[in-house]
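Example 3.2
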Amino acid sequence: MRALLIIIALMLAALSAWAQSFEQNRANCSNGDNATTISACTAVIQSGQLAGPDLAVIYLNRGGSYYIEGHYAQAIADLNQAIALKPVLSIAFYSYDARAHTYEKQGLTDQAIADYRTALKLASSDPTAAQNPLEGLKRLGATP
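Structure, written as tokens:
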């Protein structure tokens, strides 16, 4: 009986440490430098504990860090995932806008224009947010 209690106590301690690690990774996924963000977001994604809009935020954060690091293929893959998860409006806007920037950096003008236009539609009620996609379209010589 005593051995069973010790095993249960050890399992509870391990579960507590695992949960704390998940929460630390989730926090670091949006508050770290790029390498930390990529690592922490990857751990959160692999944990399988999030879905839907919450998971979309994680993919958006990691995609943004990949973009800053110049890893455009990984950025596009993560931003595609964020969009596919049908996030809330603000996350959808940032995902399309970030993906447009990434396409633009890669010289994929048609894709960038399409995503800037989608981001612009999503930002229709926020003139401040609309400025970024409008500037992107102007840089590419495209009309809204």
